[in-house]
Amino acid sequence: MGALPLLADPRPRLKPKSTATSSSYKTSEKFYLPRPDIKGNKSFFRVLAARASRRQFAHVSDEKLATFLWYSAKALSINQGPHNIFCQHRYVPSAGGLHPIDLIVIDVHEGSVSVYDPIAHALCRLDVAEENVVAFLRYSQTVLDAGSGILIWFAARPDKVSAKYTHELSLIWRDVGALIASMYLIAEALSLNYCALGALGSQELQTLTGDNSILGAGGCILGSR
Ligand SMILES: Cc1cc2nc3c(=O)[nH]c(=O)nc-3n(C[C@H](O)[C@H](O)[C@H](O)COP(=O)(O)O)c2cc1C
To answer: Is the pTM of this model over 0.85?
Structure first.
C-alpha cells in the first residue's frame, strides 16, 4: 500500500477572517414550527440498542418532523465572538460551535424544498425551479428510494469554518458524521425510520439552490414506520 494521504491539522487562525458570509438562498414563505412536546421516556440505552438503518419511508407528520429538526439542529444559545464569528450550542456538537451544515428539507410527496432556520425553528421555502426539484429527486432516487418520506440534504458552508480555522475541510466531514450519528438516535427515539446516504450531490445541490458557495455533504431520508 502506498503512503496514506495525511490531512493537515486544522488550526485556529491567528487573525480570523470576518468574512463568514450569510446564506444566499432565495426564500419566500417562512413556516414557524411547533416546539417539541415529548411524552414518554425511552431509555437512552434502549434507543441505542434499537437503532438501525431502516429503508421504508411513510409520510411524516408535521409535528414529528418539527421535533426531529429541533433536536437535530435547533440553536439553543448563540455567542458572538471576536471578528463577528458566532458560536452556537445545539444538542448536536460542531467544531468551534460553528455549525456549518444547513439542512435542506425536501418533502418528496409535495415536491416542496425548504431550508431549516435553526434560530427561528422554522422552514423557509426556497424559490426553486420545478425542473431542478425533479432532477434532484431523480438523482437521490438512484441512491435510495425515499418513498413518501422526507429527504434532508446537508449543505456545507466551508466559508463559515475557514473564517476561524485553516485546513477546515476535515472539520466539516467530522461535523457531518456527528450530525448523522445524532440523527439516527433522534429518529429512533421518535420511532421514525432513518437512513444516511453516502452520495454527496454537490453539483445537484448547487443547481437546485442556485448557491455555488455550498458543498453537498450527503443527506438522509426520514420516514414513518
Ligand atoms: C455516512 C453513511 C453513509 C451511508 N450511505 C448509505 C447509502 O447511500 N445507502 C444506504 O442504503 N445506506 C447507507 N448507509 C447506511 C449503512 O449502510 C448502514 O449504517 C450499515 O449497513 C449498517 O447498518 P445499521 O445502520 O443498520 O447498523 C450509510 C451510513 C452512513 C453512516
So the answer is: yes
